[in-house]
């Protein structure tokens, strides 16, 4: 190397070369760095692939594990199933054996069943023929039973009718007996829980036997009583009235009717005649009520019968009377304490001139007047039951009929001659009749104006009597005024029994005048009316003495024969008849002065 310039050139050249190699080296470094970066990138990609492959490998490993487990399970199940199949095969072979045996067994059973069936068929055939024979016999027996029942019912009805005719001809008093249900007050002072128990006061000793007989059964005696009808405790007001109803038709045929309830205190007389209620609470109803008694029912029936007749041909009047302490009191009067008397007419007929008769034309009218009367009726509490009637109550419905209607003649405007005794020989009374009454005529008649001679009238009466209760004074526990009332009641009832006794024995003298009760009811009891006595009886041992007395009274009443009941004749003819009968009476009184 040259010194001086050469050296610097050299160095410059050298620097240039070095710079050049540096630059190429830098470029090379940059190229390598770029390559390096590319390689890094590729490495990262490869790492990603590697990770994914690893994951895949892991998943495959898991799947392989699961597969192994599943396979093991399958293998186990296959083993089990193989064993099961083995068992089933064994069972199948035994079932096959059975299946082969079963038809043979079935065949044998079927054969046996067929044999049994055959046997049963034979038995059935013989039974069927027996049953047919028996059914024929039963049919015949049923036929003859129903024939017999029908014949029996007809015979019974015929017997009843004949009995009624006989009773009517002999003038017998009809006696029905109603046995009431056991009531709480039958216990007296004993515990209510003992009601009806044997050995207590309320033990039932009166028993219905059938619809005509009843029996009193105590440790001392067994006694049977027979009446025209016996009502057991379950028979309703309606059933009782069904038996009473036929009597009422004769009212419009010209006969007087008297229905009288008799019995000891608390035995059900007021219940039977009116219905159950306290007297002062009695409220008449416009419509029929299942609990109502004989008075409202008979009134309703009377108006029903009248409705069937020619309009305006009948009129009705009502009076309400009580007999209290042997005094007759008019319960419709402004002065109910005024005493009234029975007046005997010249012809022997009984009249009550001072007693008010109110014209009525509906059931409601009648029952309102009865209610008015009941408010005044004497009543005081006794120890037997709280609302005991202390007087005899008599409701009288008088029917004023235009004569032709009850003689069943055709309605006519012409004047005709009628045979009044319906064809019976020997009486031959005649009358004439004309048209039906006008309202004015009827009103005039109700004020007791004598009807025009051309319009003869007939007055028939329906007496409905609720007697005061017969009682044993010791039992009723009364004193003072009540004791006096009780003794009057007992006296009047024994006077009634005496009258029946005298009538039953056909005594010359019948003591009607011994009590106002018998005097007031003389016509009805003595034969002028069809009389029905309704005996009311308690079933309890407590009242057995009173019940026996009441039943005995009924027996005595049944024995009375009063001769045929008198039919009422039209007013004009009645005068002729009464003149005739008073002549007869005068003639007979010469031989029998006491009657
Ligand atoms: N057949 C019956 N069915 C249901 N209850 C009845 C019957 N008979 C009577 N009674 C009841 O017995 C009680 C007494 O009856 P009721 O007042 O009619 O007797 P009574 O004979 O009129 O008594 P008294 O003479 O003292 O007035 C009443 O509470 C009544 O309701």
From TrEMBL:
Keywords: ATP-binding, Cytoplasm, Cytoskeleton, Motor protein, Nucleotide-binding. Pfam families: Kinesin. Residues 270-293, 559-595 are annotated as: Disordered. GO terms for cellular component: microtubule cytoskeleton. Residues 172-560 form the Kinesin motor domain. One of its GO terms (molecular function) is ATP binding. ATP binds at residues 263-270. Its main location: cytoplasm. It is found in: Cytoplasm, Cytoskeleton. Residues 579-595 have a biased composition (Low complexity). PROSITE patterns: KINESIN_MOTOR_2. GO terms for biological process: microtubule-based movement. The keyword rRNA-binding does not apply. Belongs to the TRAFAC class myosin-kinesin ATPase superfamily. Kinesin family. PANTHER family: KINESIN FAMILY MEMBER 25, KINESIN-LIKE PROTEIN KLP-3. This is Kinesin motor domain-containing protein. The lineage of its organism: Eukaryota, Metazoa, Spiralia, Lophotrochozoa, Mollusca.
């Amino acid at each position: 190397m040259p010194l001086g310039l050469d050296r610097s050139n050299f160095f410059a050249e050298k620097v240039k070369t070095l710079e050049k190699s540096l630059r190429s080296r830098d470029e090379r470094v940059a190229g390598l760095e770029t390559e390096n970066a590319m390689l890094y990138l590729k490495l990262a990609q490869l790492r990603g692939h590697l990770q994914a492959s690893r994951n895949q490998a892991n998943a495959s490993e898991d799947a392989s594990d699961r597969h192994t487990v599943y396979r093991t399970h399958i293998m186990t199940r296959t083993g089990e199933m193989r064993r099961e199949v083995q068992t089933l095969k064994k069972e199948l072979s035994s079932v096959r054996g059975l299946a082969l045996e079963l038809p043979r067994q079935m065949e044998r059973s079927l054969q046996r069943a067929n044999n049994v069936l055959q046997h049963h068929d034979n038995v059935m055939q013989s039974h069927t023929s027996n049953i047919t024979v028996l059914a024929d016999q039963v049919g015949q027996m049923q036929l003859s039973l129903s024939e017999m029942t029908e014949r029996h019912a007809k015979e019974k009805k015929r017997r009843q009718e004949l009995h009624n005719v006989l009773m009517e001809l002999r003038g017998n008093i009809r006696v029905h007996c109603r046995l009431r249900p056991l009531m709480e007050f039958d216990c007296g002072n004993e515990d209510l829980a003992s009601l009806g128990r044997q050995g207590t006061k309320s033990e039932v000793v009166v028993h219905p036997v059938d619809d005509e007989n009843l029996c009193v059964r105590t440790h001392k005696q067994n006694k049977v009583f027979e009446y025209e009808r016996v009502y057991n405790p379950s028979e309703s007001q309606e059933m009782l009235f069904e038996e009473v109803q036929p009597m009422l038709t004769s009212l419009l045929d010209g006969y007087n009717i008297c229905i009288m309830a008799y019995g000891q205190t608390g035995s059900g007389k007021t219940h039977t005649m009116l219905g159950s209620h306290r007297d002062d609470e009695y409220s008449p109803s416009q419509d029929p009520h299942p609990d109502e008694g004989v008075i409202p029912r008979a009134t309703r029936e009377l108006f029903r019968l009248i409705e069937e007749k020619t309009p305006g041909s009948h009129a009705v009047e009502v009076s309400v009377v009580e007999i209290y302490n042997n005094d007759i009191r008019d319960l419709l009067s402004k002065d109910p304490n005024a005493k009234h008397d029975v007046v005997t007419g010249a012809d022997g007929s009984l009249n009550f001139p001072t007693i008010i008769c109110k014209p009525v034309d509906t059931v409601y009218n009648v029952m309102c007047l009865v209610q008015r009367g009941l408010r005044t009726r004497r009543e005081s509490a006794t120890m037997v039951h709280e609302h005991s009637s202390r007087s005899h109550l008599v409701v009288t419905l008088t029917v004023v009929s235009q004569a032709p209607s009850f003689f069943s003649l055709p309605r006519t405007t012409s004047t005709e001659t009628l045979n009044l005794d319906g064809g019976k020989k020997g009486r031959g009374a005649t009358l004439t009749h004309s048209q039906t009454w006008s309202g004015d005529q009827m009103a005039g008649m109700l004020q007791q104006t004598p009807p025009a001679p051309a319009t003869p009238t007939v007055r028939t009466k329906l007496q409905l009597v609720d007697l005061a209760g017969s009682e044993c004074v010791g039992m009723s526990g009364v004193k003072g005024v009540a004791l006096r009332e009780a003794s009057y009641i007992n006296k009047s009832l024994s006077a009634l029994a005496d009258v029946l006794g005298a009538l039953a024995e056909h005594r010359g003298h019948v003591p009607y005048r011994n009590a106002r009760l018998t005097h007031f009811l003389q016509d009805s009891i003595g034969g002028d009316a069809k009389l029905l006595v309704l005996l009311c009886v308690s079933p309890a041992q407590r009242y057995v003495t009173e019940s026996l007395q009441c039943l005995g009274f009924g027996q005595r009443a049944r024995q009375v024969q009063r001769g045929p009941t008198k039919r009422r004749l039209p007013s004009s003819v009645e005068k002729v008849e009464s003149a005739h009968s008073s002549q007869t009476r005068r003639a007979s009184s010469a031989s029998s002065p006491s009657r």
